[in-house]
Amino acid sequence: MVRGEAVICPNCSHPSSVLLRARDLNRRTSDEQFTYYRCSTCGLVHLSPVPADMGAYYTTGYRQYEIPRNLEELKQRAAEMDSRVSFVQRFVRSGKLLEVGAGYGAFTYMAQQRGFEVEAVEMNEACCRYMEGIGLRAICDSSFSSLDNRIGSFDAIALWHVLEHLQNYEQAIAVLARHLAPGGFLVICSPNPDSLQFKLFGRFWLSLDAPRHLSLVPLSVLTTCAGKSGLELAFASTSDSEAQVYNKWCWQASLDHVMTSTKLMPELGVRAIMNRPNKGVGRYLSAVQRMASKCATFCVARTLNLVLAPVERSGRRGTSYSAVFRRPFAASTSG
């Protein structure tokens, strides 16, 4: 929302100031610059203006939309989700589980194998058809207002790095809270705008993911939002197993962004190298330079991940957080 030259925080309606401008470094779908603001009161980081056609920025590189070629490949990919299922089972051993933003359904499939009665919500039609074909109930919808009338009650609802893609995350939390059974849990993993890496890398931070990440929601803001819908914070961490994987990955990828953006490392990918105007030896040297740069950034990233791990694990400074909210047995929700 914009009033004159002031950008108003969509969470608390206080003024937000420009934090940074960034390009799409992760998918390279566009050379546009996107502006992110940080609210001076609540700390929400949000994109403004939001592009009218967000679908144009989801055209390449999304593994969760890359449908497995066969059942064996699905099982291999689903095995990577086993730790997420184990995390949910720390709070809910079994029962009805809903995944929102399921992609082709790797987590949902693994949860089913581990004893949950599962459903999935996904906006990609091809992924929904695939899930139905392998025996998973999938609802194809991108509107939480219409979803409110299409789902029942669940013992657990999971959003794995989905919250940041939503234009109205408050509405999403309110709707999902209404569909939690008493004693049920809402599990959310999302990038942490209070992280050490965001402070260090800024526009080069992998988890900024401009422009697909519309909001980077501080844990404090999310907790307040969930509380308005009658949910209590049961667990929060930026150093759990999920977050530690992202810490390591983001050090490497963010350093790659710095190196390529400052021309210290050739453009990512073999195709980028092969499409360069230089021929023969020039292309070979570019490939060698890239390999050497990758090795250097790998070593630096691993060193930073090791040395700064105590800092990232203290004060909730990890690159992502895992938050679990519980609907009390005697509480009612609103929203």
Strand percentage: 15-25%
Q: What form results from the Cα inertia axes?
A: globular
The CATH homology group name of the largest domain? Vaccinia Virus protein VP39
Task: Report the top-level CATH class of the largest domain.
Answer: Alpha Beta
Count the DSSP helices. Answer: 12
Mean pLDDT value: 89
Secondary-structure class: alpha/beta
Number of strands: 13
**CATH domain fold name of the largest domain:** Rossmann fold
Over all CA atoms, what is the radius of gyration? 21 Å
**Which residues form runs of ≥5 with pLDDT under 50?**
268-276, 331-335
Beginning-to-end CA distance, first to last residue: 21 Å
* Helical content band: 25-40%
Order of helices and strands: EEEEEHHEHEHEHEHEHEHEHHHHE
Number of domains: 3
Largest sheet: 7 strands, mixed
The spatial strand order of the largest sheet comes to 8-7-6-9-10-13-12
In the CATH hierarchy, the architecture of the largest domain is: 3-Layer(aba) Sandwich
Helix and strand layout, with pairings?
Layout: E1 2-3, E2 6-8, E3 15-22, E4 34-39, E5 45-47, H1 71-79, H2 82-88, E6 95-100, H3 106-113, E7 116-122, H4 125-133, E8 137-140, H5 144-147, E9 154-160, H6 169-178, E10 180-191, H7 196-201, E11 215-216, H8 219-228, E12 232-237, H9 241-261, H10 270-274, H11 281-307, H12 309-313, E13 320-326
Parallel strand pairs: 6-7, 6-9, 7-8, 9-10
Antiparallel strand pairs: 1-2, 2-3, 3-4, 4-5, 5-11, 10-13, 12-13
